[in-house]
Design goal:
By secondary structure, the protein is of the alpha/beta class. 37% of the residues lie in helices and 28% in strands. The longest helix is centred in the last third of the chain and has 15 residues, at 270-284.
């Protein structure tokens, strides 16, 4: 079992339009509802890969009930901590002409100290059953930024490896606890470490410096169409899948987290795990619902993935 932790769960409403033109009426005849929140997106990918998965998070209100039903439809085992307030709704604007997506997010759960402690207590039990833990996404405003930093040592005490996929203060605090994999995308890397990388070469240089300065075990930076960078003790790898024609690119980075945890749970090395992660991520953009991925797409893309050790 892989435990996917998503403190800031969301329900995605994906609106497909031709192009976003501010100040003008825009119509859609295609709206898709899907699971949202980085950790739950990863859980959806894992289920498509046939992995037993627990999706853990805070849920609230009628939106939370709808979200739990969606989670259960995927076969994800829900670990639900009910709170006040309301779950987030992420309105994902998917432009078919420009092949880009934007998020407009509303809603906020109201979490008490007792509910936070309930989450920690339940995590302490669930982690005993897990082979890997994915902790992903932002943290609700009413929790401290060090929430992930409280959970990672619990997993470490149970000898369960962790992957943290977040940004800014949420991941900075977590880094101090030495998770097994620190994952960000290119933009999040710049935001988090106050860097500006205009080119891939510049990013590689800056990320390698951070990797060494922070004494990280492993760091992964996703690059969109440019692939995946992995900084490891064995070296620096660049993995790349062939460019796909995307339907919904939201969640492609979450698919990388899922595939890495999955392959490492099976004993793969970095080169093999990155090959799978690239194929799964590329396949995920071909579906309309966030996190959905089809095995036939993975199988088609996998032989075309390249993985190079660049340092």
């Amino acid at each position: 079992m892989i435990l996917a932790v998503c403190p800031n769960t969301a329900l995605d409403k994906i609106l497909f339009i031709e192009e976003w033109i501010p100040g003008t009426p825009m119509r859609t005849d295609r709206i898709v509802t899907s699971v949202g929140g980085k950790g739950l997106n990863s859980a959806v990918v894992l289920r498509h890969l046939g992995v037993e998965t627990v999706g853990m998070g805070f849920f609230a209100g009628e939106i939370g009930k709808e979200l739990v039903c969606l989670v259960e439809e995927y076969g994800i085992i829900p670990e639900v901590i009910w709170t006040g307030g309301t779950n987030r709704i992420a309105h994902v604007i998917a432009e078919t002409k420009n092949k880009r997506h934007s998020h407009v997010i509303a809603g906020q759960p109201i979490i008490s100290k007792e509910q936070k402690q309930e989450f920690i207590d339940r995590f302490s039990v669930r982690v005993q059953e897990a082979e890997w833990v994915i902790l992903a996404g932002s943290i609700p405003k009413l929790l401290n930024n060090d929430f992930y930093a409280e959970l990672i040592p619990i997993a470490q005490a149970a000898n369960v490896p962790t992957l943290i996929d977040s940004q800014k203060a949420f991941i900075i605090k977590a880094i101090e606890t030495k998770p097994d994999i620190v994952k960000l995308n290119w933009e999040e890397f710049e935001w988090t470490f106050k860097k500006k990388a205009e080119t891939l070469d510049s990013l590689i240089e800056q990320a390698e410096d951070i990797f060494k300065e922070r004494e990280l075990k492993n760091m992964v930076v996703t690059l969109g169409i440019d692939g995946i960078l992995a900084f490891t003790k064995e070296g620096v790898y660049l993995a790349k899948a062939p460019l796909q024609e995307p339907k919904n690119a939201a969640g492609a980075g979450d698919a990388v987290s899922s595939a890495l945890a999955w392959r490492f749970s099976l004993g793969d090395d970095w080169e093999s795990a990155l090959r799978w992660a690239s194929a799964v991520s590329a396949a995920s953009v071909l579906t309309e619902r966030t996190g959905d991925v089809f095995q036939e797409d993975i199988d088609r893309i996998f032989p075309m993935v390249t993985v190079k050790k660049i340092i």
